[in-house]
Amino acid sequence: MAEKPKPRTGGAPVGRRAMLGMLGAGAAGLAAAPYLQRGWEGFLAKASEVDATGLTGLLPNPGGFRYYSVVGSVPHKDATNYELRIDGLVNRPKTYTLDELRAMPQTRVVHDVLCTDGWRVDDTPFEGVKLADILDAAGVRSPSAAVRFTCFDGAYTESLTLEQARRSDVLVALNMQDKPITHAHGGPVRLYVAPMYFYKSAKWLSGISVTDKVVPGYWEERGYAVDGWLDGADRDAA
Amino acid sequence: MRSTAGSTAPTGTRPEPEGRIRRFTTAERLVHRATGYLMLLCLVTAACLYIGPLALLVGRRHLMVTVHEWSGILLPLPFLLGLLSPAFRADLRRLNRFAVYDRQWLRAVRRRRKSPEARPAGKFNAGQKLYAGWIAGAVLVMMFTGLLMWFMGLLPFISRTSAIFVHDILAWAITFVLIGHMRRALEDPEARLGMRTGYVSRSWADRQHSRWLREERETVE
Fold this sequence. Notes:
The complex is a heterodimer of chains A (238) and B (221). By secondary structure, chain A is of the alpha+beta class. Helices cover 23% and strands 26% of the residues of chain A. Chain A folds into 2 domains: 14-58, no CATH class; 83-222, Alpha-Beta Complex (Sulfite Oxidase, Chain A, domain 2). In chain A, the strands form 2 sheets. In chain A, strands 3-2-11-6-7 form a 5-stranded mixed beta sheet. In chain A, strands 4, 5, 8, 9 and 10 form a 5-stranded antiparallel beta sheet that branches. Mean pLDDT of chain A is 88; it is low at 1-7. Chain B is mostly helical. Chain B has a single domain (22-215), classed as Transmembrane di-heme cytochromes, Chain C (Fumarate Reductase Cytochrome B subunit, Up-down Bundle). In chain B, 69% of the residues lie in helices and 4% in strands. Chain B has helices spanning 26-50, 52-58, 61-74, 77-82, 86-96, 100-110, 126-150, 160-187, 189-197, 202-208, 212-220; strands spanning 20-22, 97-98, 199-201. Chain B is elongated and about 55 Å long. Chain B starts with 19 loop residues before the first strand and ends with a helix. Chains A and B meet through strand 1 and helix 1 of A and helix 2, helix 5, strand 2, helix 7 and helix 8 of B. Strand 1 (12-13) of chain A pairs antiparallel with strand 2 of chain B, so a sheet runs across the interface.
């Protein structure tokens, strides 16, 4: 009796064809993705209008926001216990309550939200206090160069250069889509950096610290670009 | 039913349990088990990253991403190690080649004829052959698109969004195909026993894989 019988080698290599066929389909999918995706998004936008089950949210690129958190659980905060601390290289460190932030002049920014993971939400309105106003109120000392953000989830951090932080489309946001920002979306207060990828818009914002150089944020220590500019962003805008 | 000693069994010199036929060697079963666990890890972490309510529950995004990336990268490793086993390589050849009766098997599936006589098969049936080839290709496409997402700018002419689009759609296809794979296994305890112990009953082999033992005899002689 043979130790290892050779099966008959006749017959079409259908297994190999199935594999190569799948590889071909993958390559074709990559080539056609930009076109397919446009049609797909249009279809989903329509489908989600009539979808009461929320199942369309599971499909690829469903539109709408997705929940990301880098920790296991995040404490809930509201007007009774929320605080935003600004300190570091400033003349007047200060702690804001939610009501104090609401009483300041509010700015509305409408811009597309883009995640590095491919999902996007077009024309999303954010409202809140311009970060520049908060920095001015605190009196930034010179020389200083950057701003570091910390969050009450206890882990997430972000950064901007001072120049970026002073742009008029960078908000300490209180409202999104004309409603107070919910906990799942980073409420009650999150950062919104309109011209950059959404990971720059730290959720659950609790601290703003002026620093003498850029301190890379959470994802930036894990390979993301420190400057998260969107393609086509006007980098020189004031 | 014929009764039998192990002398007509296809592989191995090891003595076999009474009336049992050796279907898979230990190496093959280890390859299957390791691949299965890695695939499961891949899918569970994918769900935690992708499905909103699960993401809300689990969080820990960096940990999930790391486990997902590494279980994905390691997925072909059991297969590659398995290539060292002659029995595994022989089964790959069996899975690759389509015999005339495999087309008959596919016709029977299309006509919804379920009797084993209508669905002749060698050691592997036509469905298993197609599944094996397809999943091999699908895993390679997932690895490729996954690496494009992991190392941004690896191939600048493919946008990260395109890679994600293909990765997402194929992830769902794999999920459904795997559910089918597991349902087939759940329907057939003897097939599961074969994967768990390496042995199946002769009657099961004659019924579900009617050409298998006959072919083995022909090849050996």
